[in-house]
Amino acid sequence: MESQQHSHYSQALDREMTYKTYGTEGRPVLVFASQSGHWYDYENFGMTEVVRPWIEAGKIRLICADSIDEETWSSHGDGRRRSMQQERWYHYITDELIPAVRRTPDETFITTGCSMGGYHCVNFFCRRPELFDTVIALSGIYRASFFFGDYADDLTYDNSPQDYLENMPADHPYLDIYRQKRIILCVGQGAWEEDLLASTREMDRIFHKLDVPAWVDYWGYDVSHDWPWWRRQLPYFMEKVVPLND
Asked: Residue 51 and residue 58: Cα distance in Å, rounded?
């Protein structure tokens, strides 16, 4: 499968940022790394391999973004500094990376990720639904307080789907957009999934309250928070979203 590593300067972050693409044809899939991970992790943990059939068939192309979680969600200290850096990275993704890889001005993306990447893909989808048509979130946690503790400001709120969706008014224009999209959240019920399971259940409840269709899939009590399960889940859901034989 064809792959290319890219580097470009980010105005938002004032640094060089790297991403890697796999494939050249098909639906674009924006991949977010797991917590404190980087653009190369998806390949290193075997995730690109499990969707190789889709890539080689020209059904999808992956864009693996880099993260700066070590400066934001995984960091400690000044909460405002952390939340502002998260917002800068958000603008890097939406204003710089997506335009760099978008083939047409109206092309929309599938987005996916595991663990923290599952959170990121839901947050970006919910904040900018015009950019995405599908989200496949695996084992995410969707509230900022899990990482920021007692600290809260306008930017932690804007990056906390569990909070801003809970408070979204019934006439918000995004709701009609969400209803036209495909939302998939998956979580296991085994080891190290307890907090993520609770957060996913809350998202399930909130989407139901908002009358937004979402497929929230709870896997078994043997399903742990780890790569072997995510390597099974990703192709399972990809086949539902982009059937190989169509």
From this structure: 11
**Residues 195 and 147: beta-carbon distance below 8 Å:** no
Residue 146 phi, psi (nearest 5): -60, -30
pTM for this model (two decimals):
0.96
Collapsing DSSP states into helix, strand and coil, what is residue 194?
Answer: helix
DSSP assignments along 12-56, one per residue: TTTEEEEEEEE-SSSEEEEEE-STT--TTHHHHTTHHHHTHHHHH
The two structure tokens encoding residue 126: 């919910």
Phi/psi of residue 168, nearest 5 degrees: -70, 125
Tally of residues, the chain: 246
H/E element holding 95? Answer: none
Q: What does the alpha-carbon distance between residue 236 and residue 246 come to, in Å, rounded to a whole number?
A: 16
Q: What is the per-residue pLDDT across 57-94, written as a single tens digit (0 to 9) for each?
A: 999 999 999 999 999 999 888 999 999 999 999 999 99
- The single-letter DSSP state of residue 129 is G
CA distance 9 to 215: 37
Phi–psi pair at 10, nearest 5 degrees: -100, 120
CB 134 within 8 A of CB 111: yes
| Cα gap 60→56, rounded to integer Å | 8
Please state, in angstroms and as integers, the Cα–Cα distance from residue 36 to each residue in 73, 79, 150, following that order: 8, 17, 21
